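Note to self: the last two entries modelled the partners one at a time, which told us nothing about the interface. This time every component goes in together.
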Amino acid sequence: MSLLTINKLTDTVGAEVVGIDPSRMVSDDAIAEAILNALEDNGVLVFPAVNFDPADQVEFCRRLGAIDHSADGHHPVAGIYPVTLDKSKNSSAAYLKATFDWHIDGCTPTDNSYPQMATVLSAVQVATSGGETEFASSYAAYDGLTDDEKERFASLRVVHSLEASQSRVNPDPTPEQLAQWRARPTHEHPLIWSHRSGRKSLVLGASAHYVVGMDRDEGQALLDDLLKRATTAEQVYSHNWSVGDTVIWDNRGVLHRAAPYDETSPREMLRTTVLGDEPIQ
Ligand code: OGA
Ligand code: MN
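The predicted structure of the combined assembly is written out below.
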């Protein structure tokens, strides 16, 4: 018998896990294994009202894989990063406006560590308006290509950069900001990610800067078209947060974004990211 009770939320992405005892999520290895399998199958798992405290969240994530500590220092608990536009809660909040654009976490790591496999968010405070998190499957994005497109795109490579994602939300940076963005190494990824599992997905989103060897405008038009086709309303699961919810998504097969919310909103999510064990290839 399956260890988890799961309700699918859309045809292509997202499932709700109901009736799970949160204390087993931080103590039971069989549950961790079942969650990893369900994550691979559904892309996004919603755990309503688990009310994790930050240390529990990190312990839960540790059972799923190695934790990303590259953003430590913004929260007293190592492994926790506050996602909020409130600068008093996170001194690097300005960067987080880029979460309003579709993206995949981990396309522009600070070093050569493996890209983030999964991201976990728990809601501490929610926005009064907006602030849902939206998800679309990047496996479905690949599956939706024509056979001709699958063939034509097989060799395409795309350069991803922090500058690309930041300049969309801050088109007029100071020279210092630009220098900071450019200090982050760029990363070249294939457009089509061939996973160890045998599945294929598209690597798209705000960090995609340009298609290697293609005219800039033509490459931009291609990336825009693919993203638009991947994120039509009927393919999106939108999570409307309640305080205490935990949501986990699989960056190998999911694009996501935050629906806009006010910059003065107290909305605060606590994030932990789990590193993967395979490169984008
Ligand atoms: C993130 C992210 C979206 C949100 O934490 O990586 O994109 O809804 N968050 O806050
Ligand atoms: Mn993100």
